[in-house]
Amino acid sequence: SEMYMLYGGILLPRETHSSESLEFAQGFSFKDDDVLLVTYPKSGTVWMQEILPLVLNGGDLTSILTIPNWDRVPWLQGKRFAVIVDQLTSPRALVTHFPYNFMPPSLHTSKAKVIYVMRNPKDVMVSSYYFHQMAAFVEDPGTFDEFMDKFLEGRVLFGKWTDHLKSWKQSKLGDRIMYITYEEMFKDLPEGLRNISDFLGRNLSEETIQKITEHCSFNSMKANNMSNFSLLPKTLMDFDKSPFLRKGVAGDWKKHFSSEQLARFTSVIRKELEGESFSLPWSLD
Ligand code: A3P
């Protein structure tokens, strides 16, 4: 399609990627104190882009209130990366939607840490469906049922959800990678923040944890122009169709899936994950 390019077997939007930016990402040197946020699209990326700098800087809101999220925690493979990354002060937080096998060699040789945020794939699909309606640089989703087939077959940006998860689960990064779910952050954000802070070797006071919790709530983020994408022109994201920060809950799929769709979705995901050594943190049905 005109909007997408194929790279290593997966689809990427041309709006945010170029052959130059992909090459730059391939040659990028991670530093030991870098933190890489990894997500499959619509799993809570922007939420963690809000959280990470605050955990790293001990709750200083300055950058969060003055720099848009895409420059605060920049996209490894994105067009702006080469320019932005040099302006960041260490420890740097970076983000990618790439599967593990697309990582530059320096991720392995450095001591950089990785935080992998995963979300119930049914809610990922619902969130993605609305995103495809409002974002002008991605294809129209078609009907919900059509989009489900595309999602399950991996004919979507960044490929199959299951392939993404498998690649990072098999990454052998040992204690350099932390897995956290959208659902556990939704249920108890302070506890999520404590876990993230422990993983990153930070020692945050309860007061700071509370401050970050308040700032990173769905409503605070929705009101923060640096985080809610309202700085983008309507020609790129049309909030009249759907806001980027749309619902921010766990389990919205229940309002969207028919019982037939649920059975189809569950059986495909089960089959894709057959024989894997990890299990999913949510029940599929
Ligand atoms: P919904 O469409 O289900 O509302 P990503 O950033 O990976 O594209 O994911 C976007 C999803 O994360 C959206 O889900 C969005 O509302 C949700 N989200 C963003 N910030 C959040 C927050 N502070 N609390 C809960 N959900 C949040």
UniProtKB/TrEMBL annotation:
It is found in: Cytoplasm. InterPro entries: P-loop_NTPase (IPR027417), Sulfotransferase_dom (IPR000863). Keywords: Catecholamine metabolism, Cytoplasm, Transferase. Transmembrane segments: none annotated. It holds the Pfam family Sulfotransfer_1. Its EC number is 2.8.2.-. GO terms for molecular function: sulfotransferase activity. GO terms for biological process: catecholamine metabolic process; xenobiotic metabolic process. One of its GO terms (cellular component) is cytoplasm. Gene3D superfamilies: P-loop containing nucleotide triphosphate hydrolases. It comes from the Eukaryota. Residues 32-274 form the Sulfotransferase domain. Belongs to the sulfotransferase 1 family. This is Sulfotransferase.
